[in-house]
Amino acid sequence: MLILSSSHFHVENLSTLDTKTLFTTLFHHNFAAFPGLPNTSPLVNRYASSASCWLVGDYRFGNSNPSGAVPRVFNVSKLRVTPEIDIEMAKHSIAAIDSYLNLPTLTPTPTTATATATSTHHLHRPLLLFWDLAVREAMNNSSDSIYSGTTKFSYSNLVNRYKSNVVDIRKFCDDAGLTFKDLVRDRGGHPNDLGVAIIIKAISAAGAAPIITTTTPKQNNIHRYFVFACRFALCKYHTFVRGLIAPIQKKMTLVRPRLKLIVNGKYKKIKDVSCRSKRVRLRLSHVLLNVYQAHVLVLTALSGLVELRITDFVKDLASLDFYGVIFGSEEFMSSVPPVLTAS
Hints:
- By secondary structure, this protein is mainly alpha-helical.
- Helix content is about 45%, strand content about 5%.
- A hairpin with a 2-residue loop joins strand 5 (about 260-265) and strand 6 (about 265).
- Helix 10 (about 215-255) packs antiparallel against helix 11 (about 275-305).
């Protein structure tokens, strides 16, 4: 089956998994994965007729520019994490999901952000799995958060709204006696080996459509071994590149005394840093992030190629804003950069 997701099934996360997981759990499955994929991205609707399941992303992805959000690492602006903006982003996400399933939208006022996911006729209704929402609610400790579980955008409400299409991962985990803390490897909610296995089992149990192929079983088996070998190689390559870039980028960013990313409700600007050598270091840190973003983009493209999704590969490249993916917004580039962790 083909699963549409953010970074959860991208090489970025697959590289943290055990080789056995790649060879067994994920052997027969394809992934269209884009780190930081906003729910309102035109890429989402492009996969509506081919994806077996969509792992709906975090409401906040692309919140710095809802009307023109692109899939990229560091795609959540901390300045725009407010109850009001979170609600607006959730509304945009609901409209995009409705469009994806060819349902009438219930949001009162169409916006540029929701218009990016135009409604089209689909031959099938793919499944939805609200992994990010379920994990965020499980780990939330704020009563006024969009992830408090008490708003109309809560996991339970969305499961009820899309009950004919949803994979209820929360119920699946409860039935298996598991908590989400058992299934994620970090605060970003990225699934670990067990989490990946549970997601695949839940989607399969929900009756996800398999990949339709015209090849013989022997040809298909050879292709799957080829995909596994390429994934394994891409994972090792990514681990090497991230392990090379991350420590240097961290050293460049963590100048002394430690700079705050946000000061008085605004991002700290590099130009406002008093010491010239520190400004140079911070700009070089951004260059390393740009290199890393380009590296991730190449991995995204190669992943589609090795799965022989040639048409998807061409269309993805044609629709992506390369400058936006690699460099982000002007505000992002002019501000003190975040730290890229080692894994």
